[in-house]
Amino acid sequence: MMDRNKEQHPQKDKKDSQLEEFRVSDAGEAMTTNQGVRISEDEHSLKAGERGPTLMEDFHFREKLTHFDHERIPERVVHARGFGAHGYFQVYKPMTKYTKAKFLQDPSIKTPVFVRFSTVAGSRGSADTVRDARGFATKFYTEDGNFDLVGNNIPVFFIQDALKFPDLVHAFKPEPHNEIPQASTAHDTHWDFVASNTESAHMIMWTMSDRAIPRSYRMMEGFGVHTFRFVNDQGEAHFVKFHWKPLLGVHSLVWDEAQKIAGKDPDFHRRDLWEAIEMGNYPEYEFGVQIIREDEEFNFDFDILDPTKIWPEELIPVQRIGKMTLNRNVDNVFAETEQAAFHVGNVVPGIDFSNDPLLQGRLFSYTDTQLIRLGGPNFHEIPINRPVAEVHNNQRDGYHRMTINRGQTSYHKNSLGNNAPRPVSEQEGGYVHYQEKVDGRKVRARSDSFKDHYTQAKLFWNSMSDVEKQHIIKAFRFEVGKVKSKNVQQQVVDMFANVDLLLAEKIALGVGVNPPKAGEEASGTAAARGAHAQASPALSQLHTAMSPATRKVAVLAADGFDADEMKAVLDAFAEAGVVPEVVSENLGMIAGTDGRRLEAVHTFLTADSVLFDAVYVAGGEQSIDKLLVIKEAANFVTEAYNHFKTIGASAPAIRLLSGSGMHLADASASSGHLTSPGEDTGLVIRKETEDGSVFARQLVDAIAMHRHWGREMQMNSPFK
């Protein structure tokens, strides 16, 4: 019987025949370069010694990275969805002891900066609140040239060698046969890569934690990830890691909320950043450094050059040396945010590189990527990328050249142009690389000191509170539960038994595979296994700064709201920097009990509780009566309650709260008393005899707590 598809689609068959010679199966074949040369090693780039720098003669590395850098047009391969802002940086005190970088010396100097925040995995059209690492890239426009600190909101990375970066991204991007799923790692190829590359264990613990669903870019840490060097005027070097610490603290969404926001407002994070700056609530981050002397390089039970490892803050404290303030939004997203070209190789005198193999590979890859993305070698002339320092060299022409160079000569050395421009000495500000002694055989290998893949993943787990551990378990169950291959699911469970046996058992139970065998939890070395009992309090978000400032509160009200109570609450909000927005049945003005009017800027159709940090249900019998007949009002409060947010209300509003299905303990409309603070500090109910200003202060204090995790632990028993 003739194939019906062939009968109906003769042109398709003809085209298929034309394409047949281009179809290739890699099954069972030896790996080669694009020139057909067989490859003997695809895990390690070529280095001068096991811990030495990457060598540019590694043709396989260059070919693989070049091909990967040019795979996507026109948006970025990774970090495609981003949003930026301008600002300035000021150092607190001179850092002369450690570095000669001029922008880190004079506290009176404001160094201009541009920051681009981003997600990593999704396309430019994906949502802001997906579970993902976040980019935190900062361009300092210093008098010595541009310094780019190209970081993330997670201090470690998936892999240890840049040679594997294309493999990583291919694995976590949508699967190529159906381009599904978008902006999510909850699929087979990602988790197959994880289980097959156990160096990713530590990063996975971070991405399964609340760190991967931040509340705001303004409440997100930033990390340089890699080990760099500070070099001072005497040529002395120190190893350094860079940090950004948000003054508002580090806070996250809950998973259900993050998913709903993706539908309600996929621009949630960029809108939050834009509106905060427009309102004058300028995001602020302190710049921190961890510093290690060169003679201390081997004093730790981890390799300080390993990008899958942190330097625990309890061992190497973070010194906060300056502050960055973002105070201006872009004028045009494309011209500034999208054309911004960052590069880890953009450093200034006083900052140099280490032999971190992932960093070494990035030094090549970024320039190569910008060439294809921005159409040629002159991307540095796009306004957002131009340094404030003058530029003079013999580079000429190329796509999109803006500079009109005068003169006859464009080469060095020359006599016709009096040898201008000329190189300058270190004393004149010329950049001189740190003279590190390098001695080793050319090898494709990785130091044994990089082989412990689980100790710091365990450290992260041990450092989490019970509620944070519960979130990690649920994240694993969601992500691995979406994997179709039972074999891959089992591999993931067995892998993370090396991090924590309870964690692996809970994942196995949730996804329906065999639990790991007792005793499989291990890390390779006796020292590593001993470190499994360690914890780092700095890793838990429960130890972060708590502030009500810039928190966005939905004020549910209708005509007849209690004007005196409303005034007390709004006055307290203004004093604390809380941002209230009135939500009512219709847009426009609503009147209080004394005739005072407020503007409703949202309706229950245009707003949702997931877009706010807290809810205040205004008092007033008439207002409450109107809200009671609006089903969405009760849903609004219920959802905020289920996301562990602060809810404030006066005694009459208990009718609305009760209708939402909350457990109001001994609450009653007659007494107005709800619970003691120890039971649920996030439910703030004004007693009938209580002064409005007292209630307002209690409400502000509760909003500052971000979430009330005791409520979650009551609703969801730990680790069930």
UniProtKB/TrEMBL annotation:
Keywords: Heme, Hydrogen peroxide, Iron, Metal-binding, Oxidoreductase, Peroxidase. Its cofactor is heme. It comes from the Bacteria. PROSITE patterns: CATALASE_1, CATALASE_2, CATALASE_3. GO terms for cellular component: cytosol. InterPro entries: Catalase, Catalase_AS, Catalase_clade2, Catalase_clade2_helical, Catalase_core, Catalase_haem_BS, Catalase_immune_responsive, Catalase_large_C. The active site is at residues 79, 152. It catalyses: 2 H2O2 = O2 + 2 H2O. Residues 1-51 are annotated as: Disordered. Residues 1-26, 39-50 have a biased composition (Basic and acidic residues). Residues 32-420 form the Catalase core domain. Its EC number is 1.11.1.6. There is a cross-link at residues 343-366 (3'-histidyl-3-tyrosine (His-Tyr)). One of its GO terms (biological process) is hydrogen peroxide catabolic process. CDD domains: catalase_clade_2, GATase1_catalase. Heme binds at residues 76, 116, 165, 362, 366, 373. GO terms for molecular function: catalase activity; heme binding; metal ion binding. The keyword Nucleotidyltransferase does not apply. Belongs to the catalase family. HPII subfamily. Decomposes hydrogen peroxide into water and oxygen; serves to protect cells from the toxic effects of hydrogen peroxide. This is Catalase. It comes from Paenibacillus albilobatus.
